Amino acid sequence: MRDRIPLRIYSSPPWREQRPTWQDAKPALIEAALKRATARPSGNWFVAGASRDVVKGKPCGRTIAGQEVVLWRGPGGVLMAGSGSCPHLGAPLCDGAVAEGKLICRWHGLALDGTRFGAWTPFPAHDDGVLVWVRLDRAGGEEPLDAPVLPERPPAGSIDAVATLIGRCDPEDVIANRLDPWHGAWFHPYSFANLHVLETPTDAEDRFLVEVTFRLAGRVGVPVIAAFTCPEPRTVVMHIVEGEGAGSVVETHATPIRDGRTAVVEATIAHSDRPGFAHARPAAGALRPVMRWAAARLWRDDLAYAERRYALRRTGRFPD
């Protein structure tokens, strides 16, 4: 019976009586993990949003690294992307229309099929089934890759939801937040209890391993062990490696909008080997808003952390 019921009754001290973690959360350790993450190649790929954001027959506009970008579905639903400014008179192409796979400017009817037209530039685009990506070589400045660097994900049949929030910070501030697991039970007591960092990054394995209980209601929670890694410079991934939902993933992507402005795009991909999970999949449409709400709740706090870090860095007050 215990194996069939994932919920546990847990005990934890009151918030003020938790064991302090500030001595464990060494700034040098967090900074070293951040430097290794930001040094990894991205191939100039940036997350633009959820796959569901780009629907057939309607353009979708984004600003990424100071560039206007427009995305749409071409023939057969293929993801297309390009400069968001019309080459004729600079109209915003995100306000245009899509017909027969072509993007049509609303000002004068110029139709773009995704190939170069005068000064208008198409961008490589990738749809991984959960997120859409755009490759911006001028903004990235790296050696281009044919596809984005993706983390390992659970098998087909999982339930995914994507939440997007905007913060006054840079991508590195978002990544640094995720590379500080020690703040979890202090900063988010409504969601986490009994958090223990089991492993910190080493030369052999560059990851954080964390034991934590996800709080549900009262003293009821779900204990898991999670690993945090960075596959590329603007992404931190949490894999549930033990406990309920093993194999589930939370991907946190930090996409620069412009200097001092960053989009946090978080994809939660839930998975379970339990037979009952198959019955939850038909209700995915109802579950996604709940999953997005849970992610947004955490990120309201975590963006305050990232924004504070950014403000301190900008004014030279960030602790050495």
Write the layout of secondary structure elements.
Layout: E1 8-9, H1 27-38, E2 45-50, E3 60-64, E4 67-73, E5 79-83, E6 97-99, E7 102-104, E8 111-112, E9 125-127, E10 131-135, H2 137-140, E11 159-167, H3 171-178, H4 184-187, E12 192-199, E13 208-217, E14 220-232, E15 235-243, E16 249-258, E17 261-270, H5 277-280, H6 284-314
Antiparallel strand pairs: 1-14, 2-10, 3-4, 4-5, 6-7, 7-8, 9-10, 11-17, 12-13, 13-14, 14-15, 15-16, 16-17
Helix pairs in contact: 3-6
Dominant shape: globular
Unreliable segments of 5+ consecutive residues: none
Order of helices and strands: EHEEEEEEEEEHEHHEEEEEEHH
Mean pLDDT across every amino acid position: 94
Overall helicity:
10-25%
What structural class should be given to the helix and strand makeup? alpha+beta
Secondary structure tally: strands: 17
Keywords: 2Fe-2S, Iron, Iron-sulfur, Metal-binding, Oxidoreductase
Pfam families: DUF5914 (PF19299), Rieske (PF00355)
InterPro entries: Cholesterol_7-desaturase, DUF5914, Rieske_2Fe-2S, Rieske_2Fe-2S_sf
Domain Rieske: 45-134
Could you describe the 3D structure shown?
- By secondary structure, the protein is of the alpha+beta class.
- The chain has six helices and 17 strands.
- The strands form four sheets. Strands 1, 11, 12, 13, 14, 15, 16 and 17 form an eight-stranded antiparallel sheet that branches. Strands 2-10-9 form a three-stranded antiparallel sheet, with no helix packed on it.
- A hairpin with a 6-residue loop joins strand 7 and strand 8.
- Helix 3 packs across helix 6.
- The mean pLDDT is 94.
- It holds the Pfam family DUF5914.
- It comes from Lentzea cavernae.
